[in-house]
Amino acid sequence: MTTLIDAYAKCGRIDNARNVFDEMPCRDITTWNVLLSGSVLCGHPHLALHLFRQLCGFSSSVSPNETPDSSTVIAAIAACSQLGTIANGEEVHSFARASQLDSQIIVKNALIDMYSKCGSVDMAMKVFRSMSKPDMTLISYNTILHALSMHGRGADALKMFEKMPRHIEPDSITYLAVLCGCNHAGLVDDGLRVFNSMRVTPSMKHYGTLVNMLCRAGRLNEAYDVINTMPSEPDMVIWHTLLGASQTYGDVPLAEVAAKKVAELGSNMDGDYVLLSNIYASNSRWHDVDHVRTRMQCNDVIKIPGFSYIEINGTMHMFIKGDRSHPIWKEISNALHIISVRIRALGYVPEVQNVLHDIGEEEKQHELYLHSEKLAIAFGLISTDPGVELRVIKNLRICGDCHAVAKLVSKAYNRVIVVRDRARFHRFEEIITISPNSSTLVKQFNHVTIRSYSSPNVYIFIILKHVPSTSILWSGGEHESFRRYPSPNVYIFIILKHVPRSSA
Ligand SMILES: [Zn+2]
């Protein structure tokens, strides 16, 4: 019976697997594990978590030979990784801790990966640090290196890589993680050094990362050299990278070379056509722009809709680009308007070059506003309390404009925003925090005016005279978030959460 469940799950027929499971007169933990991991495999993480809770909720129907083991916990952790919701992950982690299954290295590795995928690289690091050195395996290192890289902490990844114990030999995954970290963090020369020191044969992915890194740094000729000297034929991704960079740096001849290769390799993605079209448009080659558009129509170009998720109080809300169907669309639309006013005050200019259509500037700006991640962020802002971190998951890569907006929203609203896109995590933390509580601040500044607003958690200080020692305040502080308006003689600090000394 267990074999049958396994077979059904592996064919993607989870309903059949479930039916067999439900009809079994008695089950053991292996049966549960097969259905649990099968649910994860078939992309039904909710079902996996439901089963896990049923099993671990110590319901009376569960017999002693159904005691959860490390495979159970690992399957449940994988379900949390798929969902990307940290609350579920913490629930499974506490179960693992209580049942002492978390002492197993394989469980710890899974936890590191899960926390990273749920957006908390700090928790991933905490689990990693809790491992004893001799227990750590190559997988442990690969997982944490990948986590650091994905979260843009390339320098930390590099440091950790350099401190890897001698008896653990890096493999191609290790190198790829470190190279990606260098790439995202812009550590080009370090990345080149790592690439040249590789003790395994570089694969297409390693070359791809190297090319991407050089392209992002504007070192297009070096990137092109790498492409030309690669031992195997570069793939579409690599040419696509060069195409994108050629657009960014306005290198028309290189863009044409790359676009030709991309077309030869059979790209049918609208993004490639958009890139080439934009390059022509920025050089006023309208005839070529038309040509690209005709080719798009002839070739039935696939357009994948962008969508984003945001989790609010344990519920996932999905937003599709341009979608106005959300029950509270009116509020979201208002929020988008307010956001635009606030970020424009911080210098935001819409990046309309990301829009292909032949429409007016104003419509282009409007179209940008309706990108799914912006809808999710706006919804998040109005659905959570001030200071709550927003986590957004996006199916495609975040565009340049949404990246700029998220950064400014973080600054304007004093929020940490994490966007997980197809490639990596983007963490926006444009907030300023300082350590002393309100009374310390009053002592330090003679000319301080305190306005306490009606809400007990919001204090606003307006400092009318610049105090040279301001800089000493810009560190630490967990509960107080400050924003500074740097006019020469006026500083405004807004404490969003005042925590009385006694409770600290
Ligand atoms: Zn966007």
Automatic annotation (TrEMBL):
Pfam families: DYW_deaminase, E_motif, PPR, PPR_1, PPR_2. PROSITE patterns: PPR. GO terms for molecular function: RNA binding; zinc ion binding. Residues 347-430 form the DYW domain. InterPro entries: DYW_dom, E_motif, PPR_At4g14850-like_plant, PPR_rpt, TPR-like_helical_dom_sf. Keywords: Repeat, Transit peptide. This is Pentatricopeptide repeat-containing protein. It comes from Rhynchospora pubera.
